[in-house]
User: Which sequence fits this backbone?
């Protein structure tokens, strides 16, 4: 029996590993194995994060682990090292960090022999009942007929009838059907002829030649929209597959995965698996195992895929590396992009950061020589950049969000058989309901925010806490008339249908894509050409390739011009370039029409005249003068509580502790209320830390976090530390 102390990561909100004695018998303990341990009055599954020779736990209190689940480590040593590093860097409980790396099934102790799913089969008694026409309930009869043709899983039965669950329960009670667990077969690449990619231009070829499997650097692939970055990824992945290596591709949005997966499967002679939050537990576990055992040569996923175990790691690609969705905003607040760089360095493999609008942090790293920069300045296939036009809203007032010049441009492009993309980053019908009598607006009872009118669902909705109420007909305060002010995608859709009644419109926002598979369905309608007007929020603009779009309409370019966050201008520029880049990506020229109240604004004029590169150079010079990131490093203590007084008592104590711990070199700002001080019925405030040197900030955070954990008043507020926050307000 081993006397080694096992340091176990358990999913619990404590900033420590838990020490246990090795279990009696079983395999030799190794880092990365899952293990079952006693925890209080229960038993939990954790991961061995480290082995030690000694412990600070008294011998009589040291418990023995129950059972080692895996004969070989589920997580390899480099991934365990990354997770331990992330727990320290992001100041987060290690058990929750390790839990983020595993699908739910594996966290619960599921064996790694293969993913399983529930299935149903017909019994002999069920066959006899079917033959005798003894099943009177129509849904039960349909389900039993489906089972008669062969065993079925939940997806197949749901396709038979929406009420399949109740029907199958009744069939099981009558012993007409039986439920069992089946192991899923491993994914195999389809035996289909592969498509050949287009010929690369000189800049694409240079990128492919330089980013070789042996050249383990972090690369910035800075390419204008439509420059063929995905084609470069494909050629690089082919190199990796030729060397027997796997590639992990991380994308910011679920909506980008269907198009990317389809394109990869058409081109690559390997199994391609997908990992994102819309998968069920079984699908996610199977994809994770296919990556872990080497069955999958390419893994495509959203930010949490960065923790996927790789059997033969060869390369990591972060597509749209600038996107804010790559940063987790709740719980374990990690950056998938930054962890990709750390993981690539530890594995000594190339990491490719691709974007048409690189983040300022990435541009600064490239300028400093920490990343190797590669440019794709031209659109692939000879396509030209679109012509950009501004519409002055002071001269041409908008009705339902649309000016006459914009309407004329839409009609002209539709007449030329082009597709039109209309961009408005505001969903719902109208952002507020205004009373014409008492001049009040409909407010959320739980947040410092106005309710948004959703006409189609007849609801007033808070987009911050999810509160919903029936859409009122009159003002509750005075009985006056309520008028919807402003435009959302619903309102613009109604106006477009009235203006162009013969056209099919696809609206792509969070409301229209609630159901599973709806994104794929909408995108298929767009690409088939059945819809020629595309309307949506940022979801419609990120990374999609719509070759028939010849006109992009930006209905409100002013949303980011006057933001309070120091990153507001950067985000405005990125959105501006990204949405404009959807136009004219094939052999037809494109146009962009932008509505604004401030056509002479310096930011807009700089973008129009100098492009994103020129704008970024100017903005980075300003950042350097004001010592904002990337020329300093930030951490934010976020706190919330049900009582405002108690919340600020906690933050005052936290600030006092920070002042005592501060070694010098860290600037402390606050406490200050969050811009939305009350959200979901809770008060919110924060303290900001800023330092020129990252090690100085990290050293202080470690001491400060321990101080906060040990402080009795910390239990009176819910708090978290956000390292490298991307949103301050």
Assistant:
């Amino acid at each position: 029996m081993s006397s080694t102390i096992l340091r176990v990561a358990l999913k619990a909100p404590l900033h420590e590993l838990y020490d246990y004695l090795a279990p009696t018998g079983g395999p030799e303990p190794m880092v990365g194995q899952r293990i079952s341990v006693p925890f209080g009055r229960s038993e939990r599954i954790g991961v061995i994060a480290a082995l030690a020779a000694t412990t600070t736990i008294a011998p009589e209190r040291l418990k023995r682990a129950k059972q080692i689940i895996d004969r070989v480590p589920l997580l390899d040593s480099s991934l365990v090292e990354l997770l331990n590093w992330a727990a320290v860097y992001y100041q987060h409980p290690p058990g929750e960090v390790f839990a983020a790396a595993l699908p739910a099934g594996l966290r619960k102790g599921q064996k790694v022999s293969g993913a399983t799913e529930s299935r149903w089969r017909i019994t002999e008694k069920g066959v006899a009942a079917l033959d005798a026409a003894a099943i009177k309930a129509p849904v039960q009869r349909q389900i039993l007929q489906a089972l008669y043709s062969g065993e079925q899983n939940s997806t197949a039965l749901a396709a038979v009838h929406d009420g399949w669950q109740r029907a199958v329960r009744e069939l099981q009670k009558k012993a007409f059907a039986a439920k069992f667990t089946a192991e899923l077969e491993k994914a195999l690449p389809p035996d289909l002829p592969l498509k050949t990619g287009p010929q690369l231009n000189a800049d694409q070829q240079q990128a492919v030649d330089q980013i070789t499997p042996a050249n383990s650097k972090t690369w910035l692939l800075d390419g204008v929209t439509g420059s063929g970055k995905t084609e470069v990824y494909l050629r690089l992945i082919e190199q990796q597959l030729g060397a027997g290596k796997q590639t992990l591709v991380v994308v910011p949005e679920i909506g980008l995965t269907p198009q990317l997966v389809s394109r990869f499967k058409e081109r690559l002679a390997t199994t391609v698996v997908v990992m994102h939050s819309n998968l069920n537990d079984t699908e996610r576990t199977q994809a994770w195992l296919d990556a872990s055992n080497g069955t999958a040569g390419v893994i495509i996923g959203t930010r949490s895929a960065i923790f996927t175990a790789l059997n033969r790691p060869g390369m990591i690609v972060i597509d749209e590396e600038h996107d804010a969705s790559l940063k987790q905003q709740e719980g374990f607040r990690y950056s998938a992009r930054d962890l990709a760089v750390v993981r690539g360095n530890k594995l000594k493999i190339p990491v490719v950061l691709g974007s048409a609008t690189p983040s300022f942090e990435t541009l600064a790293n490239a300028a400093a020589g920490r990343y190797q920069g590669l440019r794709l300045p031209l659109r692939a296939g000879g396509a030209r950049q679109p012509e950009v036009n501004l519409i002055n809203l002071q001269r041409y007032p908008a009705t339902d969000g649309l000016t006459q010049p914009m309407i004329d441009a839409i009609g002209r492009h539709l007449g030329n058989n082009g597709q039109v993309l209309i961009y408005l980053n505001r969903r719902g019908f109208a952002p507020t309901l205004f009373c014409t009598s008492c001049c009040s607006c409909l407010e959320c009872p739980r947040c410092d925010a106005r309710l948004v009118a959703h006409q189609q669902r007849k609801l007033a909705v808070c987009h911050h806490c999810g509160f919903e109420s029936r859409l009122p007909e009159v003002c509750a305060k005075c009985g006056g008339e309520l008028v919807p002010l402003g435009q959302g995608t619903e309102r613009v859709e109604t106006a477009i249908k009235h203006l162009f009644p013969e056209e099919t419109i696809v609206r792509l926002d969070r409301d229209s894509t609630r159901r599973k598979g709806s994104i794929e369905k909408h995108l298929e309608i767009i690409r088939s050409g059945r819809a020629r007007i595309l309307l949506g929020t940022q979801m419609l603009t990120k990374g999609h390739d719509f070759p028939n779009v010849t006109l992009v309409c930006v209905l409100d370019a002013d949303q980011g011009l006057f933001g309070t966050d120091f990153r507001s201008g950067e985000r405005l520029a990125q959105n501006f370039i990204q949405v404009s880049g959807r136009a004219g990506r094939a052999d037809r020229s494109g146009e962009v029409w932008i509505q604004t109240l401030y056509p002479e604004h310096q930011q807009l004029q700089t973008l129009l005249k100098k492009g994103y590169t020129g704008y970024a150079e100017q903005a980075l010079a300003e950042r350097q003068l004001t010592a904002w990131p990337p020329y300093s490093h930030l951490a934010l203590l976020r706190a919330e509580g049900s009582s405002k007084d108690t919340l600020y008592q906690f933050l005052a104590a936290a600030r006092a502790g920070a002042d005592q711990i501060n070694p010098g070199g860290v600037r402390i700002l606050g406490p200050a209320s969050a811009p939305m001080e009350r959200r979901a019925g809770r008060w919110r405030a924060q303290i900001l830390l800023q330092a020129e040197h990252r090690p100085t900030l990290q050293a202080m955070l470690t001491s400060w976090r321990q101080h906060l954990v040990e402080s009795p008043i910390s239990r009176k507020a819910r708090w978290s530390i956000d390292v490298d926050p991307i949103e301050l307000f």
Summary: The chain has a mean pLDDT of 91.
